[in-house]
Amino acid sequence: MKKVLLTILSFVACTAVFAQDLPTNPEPGKCYVRCVTPDVWVNQDVTVQVAPAYKKLSVVPASYNTVTEEVIVQKAGTELSVVPAKYETQNFDVVVQEASQKLEIIPSSVSYEEETVVVQEASQRLEVVPAVYETRTFEVVTQPATQRLEVIPAKYETREETVVVQSASQKLEVIPAVWGTQTITYKKREFGNTLKVVPAKFTSSYQVIEVKPATAKWEMSDTPAAECQSSDPNDCRYWCYKSVPAQNITINTTELASDASVITTPGCDNSNGGADDCGMATYTQKVIETPATTRVIDIPAVTKTVKKTVMVTPPTTRVIEVPAITKTMERVVMVTPPTTRVIDIPAVTKTVKKKIITPETTRVVAIPEVTQTMKRVVMSTPPTTRTIDIAEKRSTIKKTVLASDARVEESVVPAVNKTVTKEVLQTKGGLTTWKEVDCKLVEYNDLNINWNLGSATLTPAAKAEIDAKLLPVLADGVSVEIASHTDSRGSKESNRLLSERRAQAVTNYLISKGINSSRITSNGYGESRLTNRCSDGVSCTEREHLANRRTQFRVINSK
Questions:
Q1: Per-residue pLDDT tens over the stretch 484-540
Q2: Taking the model in full, what pTM does it have?
Q3: Which residues contact 433 (CB under 8 A, 6 or more apart)?
Q4: 95 — phi, psi (to 5°)?
Q5: 234 with 442: CB under 8 angstroms?
Q6: Which residues pair with 147 in a beta bridge?
Q7: What is the pLDDT of residues 127-138, one digit of tens each?
Q8: Starting from the edge strand earliest in sequence, which strands make up the sheet with 520-526, in order?
Q9: Residue ranges per domain, the chain?
Q10: CATH architecture of the domain with residue range 444-557
């Protein structure tokens, strides 16, 4: 209840104040704007030093010349070269089978002799009493027993024998000279001083510049009081004089903490025990430490293993008994001599052939030795050495000589200033009178601005439209609202941001034309105020979407 009472009292007080300022004798159908003598602002340029002046040092480095010098990198010496031994090939005979003997059998010889054999002994016969005879068999040796010799051949075996095919010799091996190196030190580089610039040091700071002072403005509420008794809702709106805070900008500045300086360092400084060689360099010279010599290396004989047949057991003979050959024959033998007259009966003989065999004998046959001709390499001339002179070698080294030492060149970097324009109130405005305005200007009026897709940049045609339609309205001292809209394509948030950027682009252009920013209100409504049915999900033509992509202005209460 207490809040309601306070609201009513506030409404009555405001109505009483502004009722006295309403236009007198207004004409029906006319529109009026409460004209306020505008505050007169002038722009004042303020120069702020954003960076101080400081010294800038640059180092001109030392310059050097390069000279060359010839030095000995290898002293003269001698080397030994081996003259190799000469060899010749000789032929020699190797006995691969020693001389031996063999027994040759002299076969037995057979001869025949005729022998008269009594086949019937001489006897007597009696005429009266004949003798009694009987036939008896007897053996006759037709071939007497004999012997024959059987040769037992010699036994041989193959033995391996090592034959020298290359006689032992010698060769000379050169023990090369031992070369050593010695390090020669020379002054390769001269050093000038090294200059190190310590640049100026800065600290970051800032300055706050008030570009627009604090002011106040009248504002009317959008909705009338809840218990308004007037048929005109504008009679029941609250009017409040609200403070507008000052606008400041912060300018980042740089302050000089310490100016530039130079640190001079000697070109070569090993006073702290470091390993700096102060431009000294070395080169290596090759020298003979031990001259070349030779040593004799024995070359062993080269042998070859050959196979040799050797008689282990000489040939012998053994006697084989050949038995005699006999022949059984018959002969009549008187058993009982006749008793009467003895008649001599001569012996009956028969001639037979008798085989006489001369037994086998042997004779010794000499087997000559078997030799093989082979080749062997024989050193005819032993190796020697000869001395080769090695010439001295020279090389060129480069030295760096200081031509001019380093120096410092100094220049002054001037301070950097930034000019900031701020608004300064020259004359305070105030409430004056009501002024008749075209009623159309109180409503939203379209600005024929065709924005490029997704762009918030004013084209020359758009600026010409603002110059022709909006600047004359603002010349009367009124305040305006710039409202920009989009179609429904795209997200709501992106459309809202795009419309705000487009409204602000128009505002910025008006400010560049000298219109005070306090007289301009810019709003971006995105797709929240469509003029037709083309909301999200509705298929529309490009012409229908174009009707929603608009930028407008309207006159609002003076501030």
A1: 999 999 899 999 999 999 999 999 999 999 988 888 999 999 999 999 999 998 999
A2: 0.32
A3: 23, 34, 35
A4: -75, 110
A5: no
A6: 321
A7: 777 878 888 887
A8: 445-447, 551-556, 479-485, 520-526
A9: 444-557
A10: 2-Layer Sandwich (3.30)
